[in-house]
Amino acid sequence: MDVLRTPDDRFENLPGYPFQPHYLDVPDGEGGDLRVHYVDEGPADGQVVLCLHGEPSWSYLYRKMIPVFADAGLRAIAPDLPGFGRSDKPARREDYTYERHVAWMLSVIEQLDLRDITLMCQDWGGLIGMRLVAEHPGRFARVVTGNTGLPVGDAAGDAFMAWQKFSQETPVFGVGAIVNGGCVSDLPDEVIAAYDAPFPDETYKEGARQFPMLVPVTKDNPAVTANLKAWEVLSALETPWLTVFSDSDPISAGGDKLLRARIPGTKGQPHTTITQAGHFLQEDKGEELAQVIVAFLREL
Description:
The chain contains ten helices and ten strands. It is an alpha/beta fold and 300 residues long. β7, α3 (124-135) and β8 (140-146) form a beta-alpha-beta unit.
């Protein structure tokens, strides 16, 4: 597998992101390895909060939340998915599959021997994370889902289809501008630049361009079978499960109700709507979202 690696100097002095990098290698599925970056903050013996980002962001999205978790005595771990952040970026679009991303994140969990995990997942972090919960429920103690879901080939809404079309047709895939457009707040130029930092040029963005095409919005998508099997597990799962969706995300609107209707572990939980927040609620209201999660852990 041909791989690109973003130069380290692209990540120097990013605003609000003082965290030391950590790395491990995961099998790439073709006999080689990919280097995966992750943030690891807070006490080593603290309860683990695993923060999975989505498309086209990276662990920078969790920079406002990680200090809140660490200050509460929790161990915050935020990997960069391959293709994003400081992780290696496979050079061909065909290298990116849903199944591989699940396997790559499972390798991270297993190598770090993470247990009693509280999962925080948003966007593609949820598509990957919910599969991990269904396939390895013994490692997860709690789940927090925000602006995400686990599709099984049902038709997507107009907002997602417009996004998918844009992602394939735009000549320049402006990652920072896309994140800014998915927020209610107007991000400072230096924050937009930080989201662009992992991608020196368009050749580094094959994963970012491919992700919208991997979402199972048609029945012939190869991930539908695995997601249906995951739903069989999730529909009987009693693991405490919190939904924290935002009030201004046209793509995921209503997804929280679906999760609460189908997953037994959602019953009786203090579900929350984060107001004045868009698709990237971690960016718009990161500290508030983190405090909701800390309170959720303390109540259990």
